Amino acid sequence: LSHGMSREEFEEYQRQLVEEKIQRDKDFATRKAERANLRVQLRDKYRLPESAQDDATIQMAGGDVYLPEELAKMVEEDEEEEEAQNTLLGKIQNLDLDFDSIKSKAQSTLSEAKQAAEEKCAIM
């Protein structure tokens, strides 16, 4: 037979090749489903339309596909960051206001209005 192997050795070798291929295909399908799951999570987060292809990929992998921990953490951190920015305090912190310039503008506007009122009163 092939390369000096006995029939049993050759059959064992063929069986191992098939098992390895099945395992590689299974691993590939799992990784593909994990990526599809990540896309589903991101679509949900950003309120984008669903993808039937991603749903089908996840179904083909058996449905219980989990996001790898690092990716799940990234999505979660993004959501927490957004929630923090959406709170009133977060909005105030992101405003980056220069209160001194606002105060001086308000004072100058007030003094201009006062001066204009005094001039009108002086004319009358």
UniProtKB/TrEMBL annotation:
Q: Which GO terms describe its molecular function?
A: syntaxin binding
GO biological process terms, alphabetically, are: regulation of neurotransmitter secretion; synaptic vesicle exocytosis
Alphabetic keyword roster: Exocytosis, Neurotransmitter transport, Synapse, Transport
Q: Does the entry feature the keyword Transport, yes or no?
A: yes
InterPro entries per UniProt: Synaphin (IPR008849)
Subcellular localization is given as: Synapse
Answer whether the UniProt record assigns the keyword DNA repair to this protein.
no
Cellular component annotations (GO), alphabetically ordered: SNARE complex; terminal bouton
Where is this chain primarily localised? other
Family per record:
Belongs to the complexin/synaphin family.
Listed name of the protein: Complexin 4c
